[in-house]
Batch of 2 targets.
Target 1
Amino acid sequence: MGTYVVTGGASGIGSAIKEQLQSEGHKVLVVDIQNADIEANLGTAEGRTEAITAIREATTDGLAGLVVCAGVGSHVPDKGLILSVNYFGKIELVIGLQDVLAANNSSVLLVSSNSAPMDTNPAYVDALLALDEPTATEIAQDMDAQQVYSGSKQAVTRWMRANTGAYAAQGIRINAIGPGYTRTPLSAAVEDNPDYGDAIKQFIATIPVGRPGVPEDMANAASFLLSDKASFICGSMLFVDGGHDAVMRPDGF
């Protein structure tokens, strides 16, 4: 049994992952903006630095894995906050803890989205991948909020693919899950939003398996990818979306 760190673990998918890992006998440290073992605002550079420092101090006995799940939806009015939490709040933690992860042969799980393959502004994604937060924020102001969201998830997944080899050489196995529509407090806020509600309900009706996801679906996939059962899986994006990605991108293998 080991110690895992889960960002965004106070609610939704992150909370379900936390509970799943705990049920397997692991110790879990939650990083979130409130109601967490480590309280930090991952939407700011200062908050990310504080989180990294606190994680280091709390895992001197070892770190089995890191799950970066914290995120916000496209309904958030502050487009800069969307990219700051969804991209920088994930990637900067992985980079900032790289030596700790390597020392422990840790597994890393990035929570992306099945919206990651959607069309977005390439310049925006390039700025994210270059870790240029000011430029990405500036570009995002002229984008649709959904594209800001999906672009942040696309950048997370592309970062993983680009860095898988270098991290694997250090003993760090990185994978991602791409949740489809999942009923959480975050998604409920989007579903109730007058600008997105009708479209979301229509979207749910097209899920091939006939139901929306629940956080436990994501937690089961996360548990597998973090475990030794997935020791030969590295750099993969697992869509956990009821078949939606296959239907939307049948030739996108």
Target 2
Amino acid sequence: MDMKERMQLPRTAMPEQEPKVRARNFDEVPLGYTPEMALIEAQRCIQCKQPACVQGCPVGVNIPAFIALVAEGKFVEAAMKVKETNALPAVCGRVCPQEEQCESKCVRGLKAEAVAIGRLERFVADFERSQGEVACPECTLKTGKRVAVVGSGPAGLTVAGDLIQRGHSVTVFEALHKAGGVLVYGIPEFRLPKAIVEAEINYLERMGVEVRTSSVVGRIFTVDELFEEGFDAVFLGTGAGLPSFMNIPGENLSGIYSANEYLTRSNLMKAYRFPEYDTPIVRGRNVAVVGGGNVAMDAARTALRLGADNVYLIYRRSQAEMPARSEEVHHAEEEGVQFKLLHNPVEYLGDERGQVKAVICRRMELGEPDASGRCRPVEVAGSDYEIAIDTAVIAIGSGANPLVQGTTPGLETRRGNYIVADETTGQTSRKGVFAGGDIVTGAATVILAMGAGRKAAQAIDAYLAELPDK
């Protein structure tokens, strides 16, 4: 196919479940590319001499090289190329905002639609896994140095994967009973199947990474005790999973959840399959979800799948200001989530049993831009009205759990208990202690956490090289 023909190819759509069908099941929504679709889409890449797409990737995947392999039908080789810098390609291909990162830099996007880099990444990772056990890269070098990784989310898993390949011994400590962090407790099955996360973690374990679950650093042992146990460096990737609330009247009524609890019950503890799994969850008929980010979309779409008749997504700004991915907003609208834009809850009302029965909302209008660059919502006087509900989920952001910081003397933190760490190395105020991901930046994306993990792994490797041999 010559260049002119390739330039005329439209972006290959990905098949999806029908909205009315998927709104009542927890199966994955996008169905993935077939090999034929992947071959066609890969032909759209014009193999730029100075590929800006790579600059837009926080982990520096060699995008043109892996797509060229796809175009040749070398799907397994393409997956291996991606994994040279990305330890979690099947995850990133599903949940990363490529439209804001690599695809936003694609030259094809200047006059038409960008190459579907994320969909191709997902395809090659899935294809490789479908062929049987994924081959592990050889790692013959053993340095004798030991690294403790606290937290098994995207940042921690990236650090573990990078350092195990550099010959260091790596142990991951996870507080929950399942490894994966936000990938298993925060992102729903219909967006990221847990079997995918489990396969990625199993891959790291076969490479030699040790994973210890139900290990709460800051309670069972401290960072100092990890050093006493013989670890040479510690990486803190504990995320930002502390729930946030609005602190308005009635917010302590029964039936009002933080998004953290609501999604953890459903995702990690499989409450949607109760009583097969013994974790219950309220199956509200009229559900209000407060917020406009990806977590809010996940909670709203989960409520539909749990059988709600009405799900209201209440957001104080307009759709243009929503931080959620456009794809997630689109899917939520298709499935029947009712958007209450430029509205904000001001009070919850309860019945005689202390159960929430309604939310009072106030209409808003957009004012001047605030510190975030978005237009500031301004209350409209006398505009309050009532929506009958039996469940509310608060998805307005999350904060840093202070457990590790509070038990690690000399570890510098900033407002909100976030850890202060060098942006390029992850080095904290404590020698040998590094940090990255949401515990440093606040809640962000999976791929940005992975990018921080890659930088920290490089710095940890350099730090360990300066230590005397054991």
